[in-house]
């Protein structure tokens, strides 16, 4: 028997085990996950159980009993929800329009709408200051017309504008692609049956875009919950969780409360992602 026949016979006698092969292939990813997420997050949970420097209670107890921490959480959640809803509304309209219309300059317009993807949060905050700061365009126009300087940049309204500017390009990219995949024959069938444009939009287009809307909305909410660069550029006195965590960590060296707030913020973002996934799975099961 030749060497080739011997090797072939040994392969037939020792079948491969797909499970072990996949285990070895996923081992680097598992090690990376444990080293850069699981272990640091476990440490974060443990630090949050330590005593706060001011209340002498655990960080989690302090966060849930101090009104200013709860106010910061409420502001962050409401701001993120508002940004998510407005982003989805604008991006869905723009996405459907760009997916259905073909005109000169369409590619240029889409490129301009998605160009802010290259901007970090600090640059977005700087643009908001140039628009609605003390020396911004809005302040100059209001001063010329009403002899009163209007400023929005250093408030939650300015932060809303910054988060919206940061989220819109990402949502538009996703919803343009999702709108191009919609089955136009369903709309034609509904129109032939006498449905109005509003009924077609609500009963045909929105359900077709629902998976993309859910995933985009969840990512937008999670991003807005933890966005730091824009908030830090617009002012460190804003009562939102990223700045509150930064203040507790750097100004007061209050690691327990900072860790507890970080876990709380991450929990809300994780719940949003899980809820979007469950709703998408329920939608697929129904269809």
UniProtKB/TrEMBL annotation:
Primary site of residence: membrane
Keywords: Cell inner membrane, Cell membrane, Membrane, Transmembrane, Transmembrane helix, Transport
Limits of the ABC transmembrane type-1 domain: 73-276
InterPro entries referenced in this protein's UniProt entry, alphabetically: MetI-like (IPR000515), MetI-like_sf (IPR035906)
Segments passing through the bilayer: 21-39, 77-98, 110-132, 152-178, 212-232, 252-273
One Pfam family of this chain: BPD_transp_1
Protein location: Cell inner membrane; Cell membrane
Its membrane topology: Multi-pass membrane protein
UniProt similarity note: Belongs to the binding-protein-dependent transport system permease family. CysTW subfamily.
Database matches in PANTHER family: INNER MEMBRANE ABC TRANSPORTER PERMEASE PROTEIN YDCU-RELATED, INNER MEMBRANE ABC TRANSPORTER PERMEASE PROTEIN YDCU-RELATED-RELATED
Protein name: ABC transporter permease
């Amino acid at each position: 028997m030749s060497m080739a026949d011997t090797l072939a016979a040994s392969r037939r006698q020792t079948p491969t085990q797909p499970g072990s092969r996949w285990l070895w292939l996923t081992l680097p990813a598992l090690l990376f996950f444990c080293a850069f997420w699981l272990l640091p997050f476990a440490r974060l949970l443990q630090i949050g159980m330590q005593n706060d420097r001011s209340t002498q209670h655990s960080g989690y107890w302090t966060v849930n009993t101090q009104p200013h921490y709860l106010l910061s959480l409420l502001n962050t959640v409401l701001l993120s929800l508002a940004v998510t809803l407005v982003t989805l509304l604008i991006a869905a309209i723009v996405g459907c329009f760009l997916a259905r219309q073909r005109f000169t300059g369409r590619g240029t317009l889409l490129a301009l709408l998605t160009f802010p993807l290259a901007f970090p949060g600090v640059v977005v905050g700087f643009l908001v200051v140039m628009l609605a700061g003390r020396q911004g365009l809005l302040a100059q126009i209001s001063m010329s017309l009403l002899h009163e300087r209007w400023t929005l940049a250093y408030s939650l309204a300015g932060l809303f504008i910054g988060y919206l500017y940061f989220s819109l390009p990402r949502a538009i990219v996703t919803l343009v692609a999702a709108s191009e995949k919609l089955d136009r024959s369903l709309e034609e069938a509904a129109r032939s049956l006498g449905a109005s444009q509003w009924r077609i939009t609500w009963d045909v287009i929105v359900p077709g875009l629902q998976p993309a809307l859910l995933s985009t909305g969840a990512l937008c909410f999670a991003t807005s919950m933890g966005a730091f660069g824009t908030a830090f550029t617009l002012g460190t006195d804003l009562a939102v969780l990223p700045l509150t965590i930064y203040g507790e960590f750097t100004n007061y060296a209050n690691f327990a409360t900072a860790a507890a707030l970080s876990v709380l913020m991450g929990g809300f973002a994780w719940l949003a992602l899980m809820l979007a996934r469950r709703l998408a799975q329920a939608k697929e099961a129904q269809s």
